[in-house]
Structures are given as C-alpha cells and as structure tokens.
C-alpha cells in the first residue's frame, strides 16, 4: 500500500530527530520516533539516547506521557525497526504494543541479527499494522556504518582530505595550514564528531603532532583515536594523549618496553602484523568492528591513504577542495603511477556541496 503525504511528513520529522542524535548514540544506531494520533496530532517524539539509555520509541512514549497524552490507537513513525531483544534496554516493540499503538511505520529494517525482522514480526503478531520502507534510503545513510558493521563485521571507512584544486594537500615542505577556509574546517570537525573513531598514521603524528579531537563543534563525546604505528614510535609527550578519550595504537612489532610506556600514558596497544612487517589493515578493521566501531574517520598522510586505497578498504571519500592552485606539492595518496587508464579506481560523486568558499565532495567507489 502506498504511503500518504502525511506519512512522509511525519517520517521526515522522525529522521530530523534521529539527526539530532548524530554525535550521541554510538555504537547504537541514530533513531527517531514520532507518535501521531488518528487525527494527525503529534502526541510525543524523541530520539535514541546514549548507549544503555532509552531508545527513540521509549523517549517518544515518555514525551507523550509527560504531556498527558493518551497514545492508544496512535501511529508511531520510527526510522529503524523497533528492537525485539533484551540488551541494555528492554524490547521497544513490546513497549509499543503495551502502550496500545495500532500502527507502526518503519523506515528501514534493523540489520542487527538479534532483531532482523523479529521486531516487525512481534508487532504484527500482536495485531499491530506495520508498514516498512518509507524514506528507507535516508534512514540507511544516517546509520551507514551501523549497517555495514552488522552485515560485514567491519566499520564504514571515510577518508577525509583537504586539498587545493590541483589536488595538493600540502606544500613540498609539508606546510598545509590552512589550505581550506574556516567553514570547511568546522564542517570537517562535525564529520569527525559523528564517527566512532578517528584514524591516523605515525607519519602524521611525528610530523604534525595533532590532537585529532573534536573542538570546532559541540559534542557529547570524543571519538576514539586509532593510530597506525608499526614500530611503536608514538612520542610519550604527543598531544594526542591530552584529550579524554580512548587511544588505540596498532603495531606490527611488539616492543614490551615501548608498549608498557604507551600503556602508562593510557593507550591500548594491539599488535596485528602482516607479512611485510606493517600493520595488517584488513585485520585492524575487523578488530575495530569487534569493538563496536561503526564509522572510522581517516585523517592521515598520503602513505596511509594510499595503503588503504590499494587494499580497497575505503568506503567513502570526504574531500574539501579549495579554490587555489599550489603546483608541486604533496598529493592526496601515494597510489602509485598507472600504465593505463583502465587501472584507475572508478568513483561516483554521491554529493557535492559548497562549504564557504570551498567544495565538499562525497565520493564512493563505483562498485
């Protein structure tokens, strides 16, 4: 049955609520819920809180109760299938059934194997009318990392690059501050904030000594920092240890004294070598998936960028292009020279937006 115009309006409201939880819910998905009376009046609304706290449906039911509204016979618009399992919170489908709702409109099914259609099935078994698929693509985009982790066991890898129009990320001498303008830098912090983890390489740590935390936008939490450091060369006085957040260092050579010193600084050291004596990047992403990391925000140099690209481990490119030409400098990646164009890695532009004077390009592999 086709969805009505009011259905679309209310689901867009639920999606807007889910976006309010963009920096909050990890590793749980960002979900919004709007409860509407048969007369089309919004009775309650809410979005998922921090992990272990109330989900969107419960928040919407509480909101209606606070306002003195009765939800019997109402419709709930939810951006993700209500959960059906007992985790850190109770099943949301049971809460909707007990509240007396008669219809639930769901944007997307939950890919979590513990749910995966069971929430919808339980609602229908209780006599609740359930319709699925309204604005599904938007709901999927909002939780793209959660969907990938649940279906493939690895996080969504987003490679962030700031460059000149001719593709240079720094001058030959390494100077790169600032190629893009303040609006682009602030926007980049918002993308960093939404990720579960920010990832960089030891080259960037040694050359730039970055903090790689979120400063330019308000956020209720800092993403975990992940450092690729094959030989455990991270300085003990590095600025990356200043912010209050987990720091995970992946190495290829386990040096007990260096490990102990870094762990004394609060880092966790994980040794995952490949046969070439470098960090096994695919194994690292599997490990991050097992640690409930949904989205990885990569801010690294051309070497690590190239390594991730050559291994086909990048899901999305977040590129800020400044309207200036640098000439000879440092490129985006060390992908290496190709002998024929057919060997190029094809991409498609997912979204192009102007941010201040710069362009923000979201591009994805054309798989």
Summarize the structure.
This protein is 29% helix and 25% strand. The chain is built from eleven helices and 16 strands. The strands form three sheets. A nine-stranded mixed β-sheet has the order 11-10-9-8-12-6-13-16-15. A five-stranded mixed β-sheet has the order 2-1-3-4-5, with helices on both faces.
What does this structure look like?
This protein is of the alpha/beta class and 367 residues long. It is built from 11 helices and 16 strands. The strands form 3 sheets. The protein has a 9-stranded mixed beta sheet. A 5-stranded mixed beta sheet has the order 2-1-3-4-5, sandwiched between helices. Strands 7-14 form a two-stranded antiparallel sheet. Helix 3 links the parallel strand 3 and strand 4 (103-108). Helix 3 packs parallel to helix 4 (118-125). The longest helix is centred in the N-terminal third of the chain and has 16 residues, at 5-20. The relative contact order is 0.12.
